[in-house]
Batch of 2 targets.
Target 1
Amino acid sequence: MTSEPGRRLIGVWRTNARATALLVGGLPREIWTSAVPGAPRRTVRALAAHLHNTRCMWLKMLGGGTKGHGVAIPKNVDARRVAQRDLLAALSRSAEAYVKLMEVGIARGGEVPKAAWQNFPPDLESFTAYMVAHEAHHRGQLCLVARQLGRRLPPEITGGIWGWRRLARADSA
């Protein structure tokens, strides 16, 4: 993979990360500790924290540890206690760590390092698609849960997470 397609994929990832941060930052504070309907042991906070913690898991399996790829692994957050603003800061760190892992993939000819277990091909396109799909799935869950809890999110949030043209402009600004 040449540098240019890889840079475009990094832009896609950053746009996705902005959508996730927009949603997490836009969740009403009063539902942050609410139980997810139908899953009383899971809270909105835990569902949102899962996004960062899953990023950290993949970073550790693919780019960290003893493999020597030089990707610093952010710390997990406590899904039972993390404050919304602290999770937003953690999401920013894990999003940039993903960029570093993607840069490793570009340098390796378009393949991220392989993990002992992974359920996607190692090419950078599949990696990016898989991670974006995972986050989109949970963004949808968070929007639905907010609505089920009687706190329908405002259009600037629900429409904003789909406004990828606007979210992508931050890379060209």
Note: Residues 124-148 form the longest helix (25 residues).
Target 2
Amino acid sequence: MTNGPGAAPSGGKPREYVAFLRGINVGGSGAATMANLKAAFESLGFGGVRTVLASGNVVFVAEPRDGAALARDIGRGLPAATGIEGEVIVRSLAEIRALVAARPFAGVVLAPETRLYVTFLGEPSPRAKAYAAETAERDMRSFGLSAGEVASVVILSKTRGTPDLMRRLERAFGRGITTRAWSTIEKIAAA
């Protein structure tokens, strides 16, 4: 790696990170091919770049850096490389693997209409770890995992679905968040 977002003055052994891009390939806006996204990350100086699913998940290698600093640098560089602007949230791949190993949904009884999600906050919030919310109908429940992640369980119905969860979490934490299905998190951890 050379000068650019992937380089860090502190040096050290390169680490794997995951960039979660909000709004990529969702609802027809923010469309970017994963090949273009991969090329954009490479042009920013990152190595070992691979995308996971077509929903804005990029695993890459960089010198050890703070995730928020990496997110800011990627957020500044992506518009020029892809024409797409949006929220970027970064976690180390080790953090994602630890999240999966913690099994936050171990006690959830699954049915075909059950959906499991993790929401990543761009900025840590002390409220996130203690966050607990459930609808009166008990078809949507969210609980804090850390200052930067909230887990949610949604039971889909004709009157409630994933968009309702997204609106609820945005009201609680603002727009600087992005949400992924638990199955996506598991795939990223295995990347």
Note: Residues 102-182 form one domain.
